[in-house]
Specification:
The protein contains 12 helices and 13 strands. It is an alpha/beta fold. Among the domains are: about 170 residues, Rossmann fold, CATH 3.40.50; about 60 residues. The strands form 3 sheets. Strands 5-6-7-3-8-9 form a 6-stranded mixed sheet, sandwiched between helices. Strands 11-12-10-13 form a 4-stranded antiparallel sheet, with helices on one face. A 3-stranded antiparallel sheet has the order 2-1-4. The longest helix has 18 residues. The structure holds adenosine-5'-diphosphate (ADP) and magnesium ion (MG).
């Protein structure tokens, strides 16, 4: 049985209709006009134990609302959801033992209390056995250098330190599933790298299932094996991260550094995109021509110092998926 199951899951919010202008603002106080905002629309997916799933989409797409339904914070308007065999909004307390949650925007820790005191409180709340608490604290200390700031109140921590503390707090009770909603927002590059290594290790050693939303698509590329993309409440893509570039676009870029000044450069089967000093960038379709054929041709025509092939950035790949979805193309068959 899948550890997370969502079946035609929807969430609608009732929001007041806003009229603009000052007199209208006064009228709004009395008007009972509401409209329905569909935040999540008939979303279905299953996640197996041990999967690491990236959940991405533009602001307002419905990511946090989905996570709130999966963790029992919000009640779905329609559809079914089961997490670790439980219905989240009905069995929220029981579910808490199986899940850990980190919201990058909001700490789960006590603001004025030193980090270590918050952790001790959580140990009491979850009735974590002393041995398990010790093992976990030592492991997380090793991986996240908790000792550097464990006696500091949460309000004085940097964003990176706070994220590390929240991760530890979410994991002390050995949950099977970890929900991460924008955990790396505002966090510096070094702390991000640590976060990625930590999550990978956690997944490898403890088979923790991870659902991660992030703006930083390189988090997804480095951490996740599966990607789900949501746009306007609909899942528009769900598939493996590996091979995504292959499936979305056949175009690659050949970067050539010439040994000496060449006036006009042209090669068959590739289109010149950019020329700067001794460097040229060509775009080619790898279904039509291979990089090695192009390299042979180039070397025969010009004196070449260096050649490399650039893969497209994950950002541009995901941008392409949005574009195709907006154009109404069926992504299921083309990807
Ligand atoms: N409590 C709420 N009341 C009304 N609308 C909400 C509420 N929470 C979220 N929304 C709306 O639902 C949509 C999805 O929001 P959200 O799930 O937070 O998106 P994301 O996390 O992908 O940025 C947005 O249009 C947002 O304004
Ligand atoms: Mg959000």
């Amino acid at each position: 049985m899948a550890i997370i199951e969502a079946q035609a899951l929807s969430k609608h919010f009732k929001v007041p209709v806003r009229k603009t202008g000052r007199p209208a603002a006064v009228l709004n106080l009395f008007s009972l006009q509401h409209t329905r905002r569909v935040a999540v629309d008939q979303v279905s997916f299953t996640i197996e134990r041990g999967e690491m799933v990236g959940y991405v989409g533009p602001n307002g797409a419905g990511k946090s609302t989905t996570i709130k339904m999966l963790t029992g914070i919000l009640m779905p308007s329609e559809g079914q959801v089961k997490v670790a065999g439980l219905v989240p909004h009905r069995e929220r307390k029981r579910l808490a033992y199986s899940i850990g949650v980190v919201f990058g925007q909001k700490t789960q820790l006590w603001w004025d209390v030193p980090v270590i005191e918050s952790l001790r409180l959580l140990r009491e709340i979850y009735k974590i056995p002393a041995a398990q608490y010790k093992i976990n604290l030592e492991l997380f200390n090793d991986l996240l250098d908790l000792h550097e700031f464990q006696n500091t109140p949460v309000r004085q921590l940097s964003l990176g330190q706070r994220m590390r503390s929240d991760l530890v707090a979410a994991l002390l009770h050995n949950p099977a599933i970890l929900f991460l909603d924008e955990p790396t927002i505002g966090v510096d590059v070094v702390a991000k790298e640590r976060f990625r290594t930590f999550i990978q290790q956690l997944n490898q050693e403890r088979q923790v299932t991870v659902l991660l939303t992030t703006h930083d698509l390189s988090d997804i590329e480095k951490v996740c094996d599966r990607l789900m993309i949501i746009d306007k409440g609909h899942i528009i893509y769900d598939g493996p991260v590996a091979g995504l570039k292959e499936r979305v676009t056949p175009y690659r870029v050949l970067v050539v550094d010439f040994a000496d000044g060449v006036a006009n450069v042209a090669i068959d089967g590739a289109e010149l995109m950019e020329r700067e000093g001794q460097q040229a960038r060509f775009r080619f379709n790898r279904h039509e021509v291979s990089a090695s054929e192009l390299i042979v041709e180039l070397a025969g025509k010009y004196r070449v110092k260096d050649i490399s092939v650039e893969e497209p950035e994950i950002e541009s790949i995901i941008g392409e998926i949005y574009r195709r979805s907006a154009a109404g193309q069926d992504l299921g068959s083309s990807l």
